[in-house]
From TrEMBL:
Keywords: Kinase, Nucleotide-binding, Transferase. The lineage of its organism: Eukaryota, Viridiplantae, Chlorophyta, Mamiellophyceae, Mamiellales. InterPro entries: Adenylat/UMP-CMP_kin (IPR000850), Adenylat_kinase_CS (IPR033690), P-loop_NTPase (IPR027417). Belongs to the adenylate kinase family. This is adenylate kinase. It is an enzyme of class 2 (transferase). GO terms for molecular function: AMP kinase activity; ATP binding. PROSITE patterns: ADENYLATE_KINASE.
Amino acid sequence: MKSGSKDGNMVAEMIKAGQIVPSEVTVNLLLDAMRASPRDKFLIDGFPRNQENRDAWERTAGYDCDFVLFFDCPEEVMEKRLLSRGETSGRTDDNIESIKKRFKTFVESSVPVVDYYRGLSKVREVMSDQPPEEVYAQTKAHFAHFA
């Protein structure tokens, strides 16, 4: 998606406000990228974020996931990391107001989706408040059978 395009501006504003991008836009962007790739396995970061995303994906994509990788982390650790990132990232949503909105949106919209996949025994969890090396080792272990 091009910066400055109609969709690009809409997505940027929604992200800044801590809101979720419409499912149709997200699913179509993902599918376009997947179709353009010669690969047949994909790691999709941060999706689905809500029930609407999940429904749109299942209706449109025709793909099922092997598993959901969930990085669990205490809110205070995430807040500290995001504020630190904001000092150098240039991201407009790395400020305390946007971060708090994103946490609220996550709990209300994303946790039920994680719980859905947990009910299907598809969630693999990594406690990500640990040192990066440990988080990496745990994450890598979840992908070992794909190698």
